[in-house]
Amino acid sequence: MEKPHALVVPYPAQGHVIPFMELSHCLMDHGFKITFVNTEFNHARVVAALPKMGGVQEQIRLVSIPDGMAPGEDRNDLGKQYGTMGWAVEVAVKMGIRAAAVWTVTVSFCALLFHIPKLIEDRIIDTDGFPTTQQMIKLSPTMPEFNTTQLVWLFVGDRDAQRSLFRYLHECTQAAKLANWLLCNSFYEIEPSACELVPNIRLIGPLLAGRRLGRLEGNFWPEDPTCLSWLDEQPPRSVVYIAFGSFTIFNRRQFHELALGLELSNRSFLWVVRPDLTDGPSDAYPDGFEARVAGRGRIVGWSPQQKCFNN
């Protein structure tokens, strides 16, 4: 009998590539052939991050597709480039291929997005995602209350940006509803009430990078392990961890405000500052900042995040 074949198409960001890679290995362990698709830009980063011996390429077929960007264009504007990844589900449905949508965050957030039509119908939010009034609501009697001013899309930029993010998230949800299965990188014990609100969901988490065989496939930047010994020297629950993923970009003013806020907090901190985190020079810290926080702050280009939280 021929092996089943899974075509795996992650959103082009590290927070999606890593759990999708771990899922691919789990499927492979159950007899699947895997073809893993990245954009050309991310494909090169993944291949460069593979272990020298026994790498993923011996087990999973890695392929790339054009990223659609001209040389010099900002590859961090992922929404502009790719829209939602729902197109992959839509193509599968049109071709009669069974499809699974993978949700890389919490079931609770998924439940919120699935309830958007109901929130609009009840006039809790308008069709652009903005609250009609400030109030406390529950998605179900067993879910925690939250304020309508705390909806996640309201924390991004101005109203135009918030409206765009709301529509983007709603489109993602509509595409996910077309899939045969909705797989979520979570587990029942931490959010049982939310699981009851999302139809056809399957919990497959946590999908952790390198959980088996010490694999590191998918990291886009070299990890700096020196922060681990520094963390071991700090008292329990004393360090603030700051990281903004693989494609967030700060302007100089935002970067300075964050740096000065960390300084004024008087707390020890571990801050991940990617080489391309700012839209200016990578050494654009406020004057004297690094010297003033040297005794309690640690700054790295990319951290071994799982090991940081396991220590």
Characterization of the model:
- The protein is α/β, with parallel strands linked by helices.
- The chain has 2 domains: 5-203, Rossmann fold, CATH 3.40.50.2000; 226-310, Rossmann fold.
- The protein has 12 helices and 11 strands.
- Strand 5 and strand 6 form a beta hairpin.
- Residues 69-82 and 211-218 have low confidence and may be disordered.
Mind telling me the CATH superfamily name of the largest domain?
Glycogen Phosphorylase B
Task: Kindly identify the CATH topology of the largest domain.
Answer: Rossmann fold
Shape: globular
Domain module count: 2
Q: Please give the largest β-sheet.
A: 3 strands, parallel
- Overall structural class, as computed from helix and strand content, comes to alpha/beta
Q: Please tally the β strands and state the result.
A: 11
Kindly estimate the percentage of residues that lie in beta strands according to DSSP.
5-15%
Oligomer: single chain
Distance between the termini: 45 Å
From the alpha carbons, calculate the radius of gyration and give it in angstroms.
Answer: 21 Å
CATH architecture of the largest domain: 3-Layer(aba) Sandwich
- H/E topology pattern: EHEHEHHEHHEEHEHEHEHEHEH
Q: Would you identify the regions where 5 or more consecutive residues have pLDDT less than 50?
A: 69-82, 211-218
